[in-house]
Predict the structure.
Amino acid sequence: MKIIYILWLRQLKRYLRSKSRVFGSLAQPIFFLLALGAGFGPVFSRAGAGDYIEFLVPGIISMTIIFTSMFSGMEIIWDKQFGFLKETLVAPVSRFNIMIGRTLGGATIATFQGTVVLFLSLIAGFHPMAWGLVPIAILVMFLSSLLFTALGTAIASRLDDMQGFQMIMNFLVMPIYFLSGAIFPLDRASVLGKIASLDPLSYTVDALRHLLTSVHFFSLSRDISILAVLTILFLALGSYFFSKVQI
Amino acid sequence: MPNTQNSGIGPWVNNMPIIEVKNLTKKFGDLTAVGNISFSVPEGKIFGFLGPNGAGKSTTIKMLTTLLTPTEGTLVLNGHNVADDPREARRSFGIVFQDPSLDEELTAYENMEIHGVLYHMKKNIRRERIAQLLDFVELWDRKDSKVKEFSGGMKRRLEIARGLLHHPKVLFLDEPTLGLDPQTRNHMWEYLRKLNETENITIFFTTHYMEEAERIADGIAVIDHGQIIASGAVEELKQQTSTNSLEEAFLKLTGRNIRDEDVSKADAMRMHHRAWRRNK
């Protein structure tokens, strides 16, 4: 337990001390919110689809979650480069505990960021449907953060340079994000809609939209169970690949 | 090339071995990085492990410190078989890597603290030992500074202090003085010698500075092309090769050709990063 705690704490300290990371990672969702909100908002409501900000905010929160989580998971590449990973790998502790500590740290940071974005969006005119459901929305954020941090860890355990990191960001994270229905409504009957139902982030977006604005496609229990199963799967995969890391 | 693969047995060996390596082999695909080497290091001694670039030094250290699994052979550290009981073996050693392995965003104290927790040290013992060691390496007054503000020598001292925190029996040092100025290097060896004397820690180091090895080491093994080509006390090596210094003996044993090391992707990235920092 202490091992998990100290490595969790390390991730948090690193995050809070890097002011550029804190502000930089919040700037992106805010720009998206303002640019897309102002740009597409009028078109969206003219098309009779309702208030675009209400639609967009759960998507922007999901974007914050996936980017921050994947980035945190992939911090392992940094630790390989700067050597700190070796320090943990030669210590008399199990690799599983190391991986769990890191993953919980990354997930905590991503959840924190998602929550901050939720509160910032209030300024842009967003109103959650019921404040009582906000804590549940935060739990969904945490579950999704765990899922994507574990995925990032699994991938980063197999990579050893930054170029690989960029590839993953462009060819995995971007498609996951755009396919999730975070920024535009998906026609679920279309081919694109069918592919989107294979996208884990779709369920994050759907659950958050459900809890914050009551609009949804799947049931909440289905969203959460799919996210939970995938989280367990990716945690298992992540700890397996991490246990195989050789330096 | 004289083949004196005598398992490190020479007149300098009086104590019980704390490191025992038997028929150790590591292959990467077709490449044999380390081919069937055997040696032992007696407790409480300072042991230099020398060899040109790409000779198999780092691979051997990685196997000794559980970062790589050997293809064949056995490794026993402090009575624990590394393959069967990695956790106890890990408790027995401290290591200072060739490249810094500190978290630069954290303070010196926090780096020590994490290490103490990773090695299951109780809080009060941990705190006391951290204070003692930071004082020993003369970093106590900088304990709350972030490591990224430290010079190369300070980082190396902090790593030595960290490697010693959990009272290891053996301290591995992979080129501990690389890139340090002569003053700092001298100072570093003074610390290490003091430690060796006061805490009876066995020191296993690699270096490219032959005069350092000659001055400090009780025993030496020379590895080349994955084979131990000579071992024994410094004087023995000089006699075997009829030379006057360890440097000459080393060159006689390993030849004068320049070696180029194959670098892994991670190493290449690290070097690139280092070059960047230097330019800033």
Q: What stands out?
A: The longest helix of chain B spans residues 182-199. Strands of chain B lie at 17-28, 31-42, 46-50, 72-77, 80-81, 93-96, 170-174, 202-206, 219-224, 227-232. The domain at 4-279 of chain B is CATH 3.40.50.300 (Rossmann fold).
